[in-house]
Amino acid sequence: MPAFTDSAFEVGPGPSRPLDRVLRDLHPGSSWNDVRRLVRTGKVRVNGAVALEPSTPVAAGAKVAIQMAAPKPLGSSALPRDTLEYVDAHLVVVRKPPNIATVPFEDERDTLDRLVQSLLRKTARPGTSVAPLGVVQRLDKETSGLIVFARTTMAKRGLQQQFRDHSVRRSYRAIAHGNVESRTIRSRLVQDRGDGVRGSTDRGDLGRDAVTHVRVLERLEGATFVECVLETGRTHQIRIHLSEIGHPLVGERVYSRGYAGPLIEAPRLMLHAGELGFTHPVTGKMLEFHQPIPDDMAAVLARLGRPRG
After folding, report:
1. One of 140, 192, 195, 295 is an active-site residue; which one?
2. Which of 10, 119, 279, 295 falls between 20 and 30 A from 17, CA-CA?
3. Is residue 107 scored above 60 in pLDDT?
């Protein structure tokens, strides 16, 4: 973490902004991960109360304080049992809540793989050991929805091969800024497009192919509710592709720079992995899972409503 120091300030005039944006504006040399980690480790207070979510809206006049000696908050102790969508001896399909990292990153401890493993221990028969989970896919921290973990080496190898073959069905629901049209987006994605951010390149010898199929579900006020089906699964693929065609996701903070219209406020990135389908790597049975959008995303949809006229 960069050399943040104890400080206190009052947010200036203007519309409400997410806390991480306020902090990054104040510390322009810091990355998004830097300021989000500062918040999630309990070092930031807003109007006297500890704020643990980087997306917390901060209004003009709010008093923000950074206290580097503040203790880390106690982590989440458990996930509800209905987090487990499907469990057998070889794999587990999980309903991932938003704002939980899939796997550990630096000082994060309460990650999805560890919390699911703890939940499996509680639901297992007495005396049964639970091995560490095999990671075969990831969802961004703010993204909610369905994700599969392997429980055996055979299952991990089989699932990894299906992901490499692009035979896994992955359908997402997303809310994107502006008037999106149904289309297929193809590009080659690189880790750094030249400004330190992931993006597409015109060079055929760089990056990896990425294909996203976008279908309009509903027109909203200033936004569009869409389905995104992944043919490939590159890091931040949906976020990058929609941003690069001029329609960043609602709640987006990394890939929203340069968007000409007003940014719509949301409690997090409006992206949900709603459908997951694959062949069981051991039994050969086709498995399909569906999860409705969560309440926070439904609330944003209701707020935006349908367009007038």
Report:
1. 140
2. 295
3. no
